[in-house]
Design brief:
Blueprint (H helix, E strand, L loop, with lengths): L4 H15 L8 H6 L7 H33 L5 E4 L4 E7 L3 E8 L3 E4 L3 H5 L3 H13 L18 H11 L1 H19 L11 E8 L6 H4 L4 E7 H8 L5 H7 L1 E4 L1
Parallel strand pairs: 3-5
Antiparallel strand pairs: 1-4, 2-3, 5-6, 6-7
Helix pairs in contact: 3-7
Length: 250
Protein backbone atom coordinates (compact mmCIF):
# COMPACT_ATOMS: atom_id res chain seq x y z
CA UNK A 1 0.00 0.00 0.00
CA UNK A 2 1.47 3.38 -1.04
CA UNK A 3 1.24 6.13 1.49
CA UNK A 4 -0.17 9.41 0.18
CA UNK A 5 1.82 12.61 0.41
CA UNK A 6 -0.65 14.02 2.95
CA UNK A 7 -0.11 11.03 5.25
CA UNK A 8 3.67 11.39 5.01
CA UNK A 9 3.34 15.08 5.91
CA UNK A 10 1.19 14.22 8.94
CA UNK A 11 3.74 11.70 10.23
CA UNK A 12 6.75 13.95 9.65
CA UNK A 13 5.00 16.91 11.26
CA UNK A 14 4.11 14.86 14.31
CA UNK A 15 7.72 13.61 14.66
CA UNK A 16 9.03 17.14 14.41
CA UNK A 17 6.66 18.30 17.15
CA UNK A 18 7.67 15.39 19.36
CA UNK A 19 11.43 15.86 18.93
CA UNK A 20 11.68 19.65 19.19
CA UNK A 21 9.60 21.93 21.40
CA UNK A 22 9.83 25.47 20.02
CA UNK A 23 8.70 28.21 22.42
CA UNK A 24 6.25 30.64 20.88
CA UNK A 25 6.92 34.24 21.80
CA UNK A 26 3.86 36.45 21.66
CA UNK A 27 3.30 40.10 22.45
CA UNK A 28 1.06 41.09 25.40
CA UNK A 29 -1.60 42.21 22.94
CA UNK A 30 -1.66 38.83 21.25
CA UNK A 31 -1.86 37.01 24.59
CA UNK A 32 -4.74 39.21 25.70
CA UNK A 33 -6.62 38.43 22.51
CA UNK A 34 -6.35 34.69 23.06
CA UNK A 35 -8.89 32.90 25.20
CA UNK A 36 -7.97 29.63 26.87
CA UNK A 37 -10.46 26.83 26.25
CA UNK A 38 -10.74 24.39 29.11
CA UNK A 39 -10.60 20.76 27.94
CA UNK A 40 -13.72 18.71 28.46
CA UNK A 41 -13.95 15.62 30.63
CA UNK A 42 -13.80 13.29 27.61
CA UNK A 43 -10.69 14.99 26.24
CA UNK A 44 -8.99 14.82 29.64
CA UNK A 45 -9.84 11.13 29.97
CA UNK A 46 -8.43 10.37 26.52
CA UNK A 47 -5.21 12.24 27.25
CA UNK A 48 -4.86 10.23 30.46
CA UNK A 49 -5.21 7.00 28.48
CA UNK A 50 -2.55 8.18 26.03
CA UNK A 51 -0.22 8.91 28.98
CA UNK A 52 -0.73 5.36 30.24
CA UNK A 53 0.00 4.01 26.77
CA UNK A 54 3.23 6.04 26.65
CA UNK A 55 4.42 4.22 29.77
CA UNK A 56 3.41 0.89 28.25
CA UNK A 57 5.53 1.53 25.16
CA UNK A 58 8.51 2.56 27.27
CA UNK A 59 8.28 -0.68 29.25
CA UNK A 60 7.91 -2.63 26.01
CA UNK A 61 11.30 -1.32 24.85
CA UNK A 62 12.82 -2.27 28.21
CA UNK A 63 11.42 -5.79 27.85
CA UNK A 64 12.95 -6.05 24.38
CA UNK A 65 16.39 -5.13 25.74
CA UNK A 66 16.06 -7.70 28.53
CA UNK A 67 15.06 -10.45 26.12
CA UNK A 68 18.03 -9.77 23.85
CA UNK A 69 20.40 -9.59 26.82
CA UNK A 70 19.11 -12.93 28.11
CA UNK A 71 19.60 -14.51 24.68
CA UNK A 72 23.20 -13.35 24.33
CA UNK A 73 24.06 -14.20 27.93
CA UNK A 74 22.81 -17.73 27.31
CA UNK A 75 25.83 -18.10 24.99
CA UNK A 76 28.38 -16.38 27.23
CA UNK A 77 28.52 -15.11 30.80
CA UNK A 78 31.01 -12.43 29.77
CA UNK A 79 28.46 -10.09 28.17
CA UNK A 80 27.38 -6.93 29.96
CA UNK A 81 24.56 -4.69 28.78
CA UNK A 82 23.97 -1.03 29.57
CA UNK A 83 20.94 0.82 28.29
CA UNK A 84 18.96 3.88 29.30
CA UNK A 85 15.20 4.29 29.47
CA UNK A 86 13.03 4.78 26.40
CA UNK A 87 10.91 7.92 26.08
CA UNK A 88 7.48 8.17 24.51
CA UNK A 89 5.16 11.09 23.78
CA UNK A 90 1.66 10.79 22.35
CA UNK A 91 -0.67 13.20 20.58
CA UNK A 92 -4.23 13.33 19.35
CA UNK A 93 -4.30 14.44 15.71
CA UNK A 94 -7.70 15.65 14.54
CA UNK A 95 -8.83 13.80 11.44
CA UNK A 96 -6.15 11.14 11.85
CA UNK A 97 -6.21 9.47 15.27
CA UNK A 98 -3.41 8.94 17.79
CA UNK A 99 0.28 9.35 17.09
CA UNK A 100 3.05 8.33 19.54
CA UNK A 101 6.75 9.03 19.10
CA UNK A 102 9.16 6.63 20.87
CA UNK A 103 12.87 7.32 21.33
CA UNK A 104 14.72 4.01 21.47
CA UNK A 105 17.92 3.98 23.58
CA UNK A 106 21.05 2.35 22.25
CA UNK A 107 22.00 -1.07 23.59
CA UNK A 108 25.58 -0.79 24.82
CA UNK A 109 27.20 -4.23 24.76
CA UNK A 110 30.54 -5.07 26.35
CA UNK A 111 31.96 -8.53 25.71
CA UNK A 112 35.07 -9.98 27.29
CA UNK A 113 36.39 -13.38 26.25
CA UNK A 114 39.14 -15.23 28.10
CA UNK A 115 42.47 -14.80 26.30
CA UNK A 116 43.48 -18.38 26.93
CA UNK A 117 40.34 -19.46 25.08
CA UNK A 118 41.33 -17.48 22.01
CA UNK A 119 44.97 -18.58 22.05
CA UNK A 120 44.48 -22.21 22.98
CA UNK A 121 45.37 -24.68 20.20
CA UNK A 122 42.65 -27.23 19.51
CA UNK A 123 43.56 -30.71 20.84
CA UNK A 124 42.90 -32.26 17.42
CA UNK A 125 45.57 -30.09 15.80
CA UNK A 126 48.15 -30.82 18.50
CA UNK A 127 47.56 -34.57 18.20
CA UNK A 128 47.81 -34.43 14.39
CA UNK A 129 51.12 -32.57 14.58
CA UNK A 130 52.52 -35.15 17.02
CA UNK A 131 51.48 -38.02 14.74
CA UNK A 132 53.22 -36.44 11.77
CA UNK A 133 56.43 -36.07 13.78
CA UNK A 134 56.41 -39.77 14.78
CA UNK A 135 55.71 -40.97 11.24
CA UNK A 136 58.36 -38.78 9.65
CA UNK A 137 61.33 -38.31 12.02
CA UNK A 138 63.77 -35.57 11.07
CA UNK A 139 67.22 -34.47 12.20
CA UNK A 140 67.72 -32.37 15.27
CA UNK A 141 68.40 -29.28 13.22
CA UNK A 142 66.54 -26.35 14.74
CA UNK A 143 63.65 -25.11 12.65
CA UNK A 144 62.92 -21.42 12.24
CA UNK A 145 60.35 -20.28 14.75
CA UNK A 146 57.33 -18.35 13.68
CA UNK A 147 54.59 -16.67 15.64
CA UNK A 148 51.63 -19.03 16.02
CA UNK A 149 48.45 -17.89 14.33
CA UNK A 150 45.67 -17.21 16.82
CA UNK A 151 43.21 -20.06 16.92
CA UNK A 152 39.63 -19.35 17.97
CA UNK A 153 37.79 -22.41 19.32
CA UNK A 154 34.37 -23.22 17.89
CA UNK A 155 32.57 -22.26 21.10
CA UNK A 156 34.17 -18.81 20.97
CA UNK A 157 33.35 -18.43 17.27
CA UNK A 158 29.69 -19.27 17.96
CA UNK A 159 29.64 -16.74 20.79
CA UNK A 160 31.11 -14.00 18.61
CA UNK A 161 28.61 -14.75 15.84
CA UNK A 162 25.73 -14.46 18.30
CA UNK A 163 27.04 -11.15 19.59
CA UNK A 164 27.53 -9.76 16.08
CA UNK A 165 23.80 -10.28 15.48
CA UNK A 166 22.81 -8.46 18.69
CA UNK A 167 21.89 -5.16 17.00
CA UNK A 168 19.58 -6.85 14.50
CA UNK A 169 17.99 -8.93 17.27
CA UNK A 170 17.40 -5.78 19.32
CA UNK A 171 15.69 -3.96 16.46
CA UNK A 172 13.49 -6.95 15.67
CA UNK A 173 12.52 -7.49 19.31
CA UNK A 174 11.70 -3.79 19.81
CA UNK A 175 9.42 -3.86 16.78
CA UNK A 176 7.67 -7.00 18.01
CA UNK A 177 7.20 -5.65 21.54
CA UNK A 178 5.82 -2.34 20.27
CA UNK A 179 3.44 -4.15 17.91
CA UNK A 180 2.06 -6.34 20.70
CA UNK A 181 1.64 -3.29 22.95
CA UNK A 182 -0.41 -1.62 20.22
CA UNK A 183 -2.69 -4.66 20.09
CA UNK A 184 -3.01 -5.41 23.80
CA UNK A 185 -3.09 -2.04 25.55
CA UNK A 186 -5.05 0.36 23.33
CA UNK A 187 -8.67 -0.63 23.90
CA UNK A 188 -9.20 2.35 26.19
CA UNK A 189 -8.03 4.75 23.48
CA UNK A 190 -11.39 4.07 21.79
CA UNK A 191 -10.22 4.73 18.26
CA UNK A 192 -12.93 5.19 15.67
CA UNK A 193 -13.02 2.67 12.79
CA UNK A 194 -11.57 5.20 10.33
CA UNK A 195 -8.87 6.49 12.70
CA UNK A 196 -5.27 5.30 12.88
CA UNK A 197 -2.91 4.47 15.72
CA UNK A 198 0.68 5.19 14.70
CA UNK A 199 3.85 4.55 16.68
CA UNK A 200 7.06 6.06 15.31
CA UNK A 201 10.23 4.50 16.75
CA UNK A 202 13.60 6.16 16.28
CA UNK A 203 17.00 5.44 17.78
CA UNK A 204 18.36 7.95 20.27
CA UNK A 205 20.84 10.38 18.70
CA UNK A 206 22.18 11.82 21.96
CA UNK A 207 25.65 10.23 21.70
CA UNK A 208 26.03 10.03 17.91
CA UNK A 209 28.17 12.12 15.62
CA UNK A 210 26.48 14.25 12.91
CA UNK A 211 27.39 11.68 10.25
CA UNK A 212 25.83 8.86 12.27
CA UNK A 213 22.67 10.88 12.94
CA UNK A 214 22.06 11.10 9.19
CA UNK A 215 22.05 7.29 9.07
CA UNK A 216 19.26 6.96 11.64
CA UNK A 217 15.94 5.63 10.40
CA UNK A 218 12.43 6.02 11.76
CA UNK A 219 10.19 2.97 11.71
CA UNK A 220 6.48 3.75 11.79
CA UNK A 221 4.01 1.07 12.88
CA UNK A 222 0.36 1.86 12.26
CA UNK A 223 -2.92 0.03 12.51
CA UNK A 224 -6.45 1.10 11.71
CA UNK A 225 -9.11 1.46 14.38
CA UNK A 226 -11.41 -1.02 12.60
CA UNK A 227 -8.69 -3.71 12.71
CA UNK A 228 -8.15 -3.11 16.42
CA UNK A 229 -11.90 -3.45 17.01
CA UNK A 230 -11.91 -6.78 15.16
CA UNK A 231 -9.02 -8.00 17.30
CA UNK A 232 -10.65 -6.89 20.55
CA UNK A 233 -13.87 -8.66 19.52
CA UNK A 234 -12.02 -11.90 18.71
CA UNK A 235 -12.62 -11.70 14.97
CA UNK A 236 -8.86 -11.63 14.37
CA UNK A 237 -6.21 -13.85 15.92
CA UNK A 238 -3.02 -12.33 17.27
CA UNK A 239 -1.05 -13.38 14.19
CA UNK A 240 -3.75 -11.98 11.89
CA UNK A 241 -3.77 -8.72 13.84
CA UNK A 242 0.02 -8.48 13.69
CA UNK A 243 -0.20 -8.83 9.92
CA UNK A 244 -2.61 -5.87 9.85
CA UNK A 245 0.00 -3.59 11.40
CA UNK A 246 1.67 -1.68 8.58
CA UNK A 247 5.40 -1.06 8.79
CA UNK A 248 7.04 1.90 7.08
CA UNK A 249 10.62 3.13 7.27
CA UNK A 250 12.07 6.46 6.21
Amino acid sequence: MTRSRSEVRVVKRAIAVAMIAIPVLASPGMLAAQTAIAPGAEQIRRHEQINLFEGTLERAVTNAARRVAKDVQSHTSNANFITSDARAKGFILDGYGVFVYVEIPALDLTLSLMLDQLDREPPQKAEADQGKAEANPVSNRPEPKSEPSPVIPKVARDTLKSVMDTGEKYRGEVQLQLTDAMLDFTKNLELKPDEWLSVAARGSDGTLTPGEILQLRTVVLRVKGSDLSDYFAGRLTREEARAKVEVRQF
